[in-house]
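ok so I'm stuck.
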Amino acid sequence: MSRPKISVIGAGNVGATAALRLAELELGDVVLVDIVEDMPQGKALDLTETAPVVGFDVAITGANSYDATEGSDIVVITSGIPRKPGMSRDDLLSTNAKIVKLVTGEVAKRSPNAIIVVVANPLDAMTYVAHTVSGFPRERVMGMAGVLDSARFRAFIAMELGVSVDNIHAFVLGGHGDDMVPLTKYTTVAGVPITELMPAERVEALVKRTRQGGAEIVKLLKTGSAFYAPGASAAQMCEAILKDQKKILPCCVLAQGEYGVDGTFVGLPVILGSRGLESVFEIELTEEETEMVRLSASHVKELCERVRELGVL
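replied:
not stuck anymore, here's the structure
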């Protein structure tokens, strides 16, 4: 029985980190693709030489041609230019939309049954591009954002309270931007809502830091954006799918009436399994939270309209 095949498009920092994590989890054979000549081959060889040290046993190959992705079970799209200091995720719109359009077209015709996980920014709009170009059903096209945003929220809470991140569960919904929606009443430490463990002003400060989590790292790095946590987050989504875990994770998906949002890609809690998006996990939100999700979705819709105005689609 052959192993699953996972293609990672874009062998930069995010792609290479995702590939390493996928290999460590032994989820399947990994193909790294990039347009830079010899670079994905070099990184694939380096990862292959990591196997004897770490102990994973999967095949990792690098290629400059999309032909190497043929028959993929999952395609992770990290291609695109990274943010630099002073840039918003939205500033990347035109350039990355063209890149994601090209990549999606190439991989979709070679792997018509694949599940696509988009990581490129601005995330929600790029997931829309991938969905439109591929023609795949909504179950098989999703974006990685909520997993990362929730991880950041959990990390900040753990730092604030001096507790293990394993004890913390968090949900961050909405678009992957400054209007994302951390759900504080569903964010718990060993089952206790964080609103009972810290004053409101500290909760709000952590919410603000979560919203600006990517920009904080961009400012510190000065020459690029985050990659360890984004790469690991994409791998977690792949693991839930390939292991049919039915895990509830916040992911960017096409809303079809859930949470009062219809026809727009937005971060929602979903059940991930072998078919990709198995279902949207609906939880009760306050009126304020529901309105915040809708507002976030409206911003994503504006970005998608701009993609069309730019003539990318």
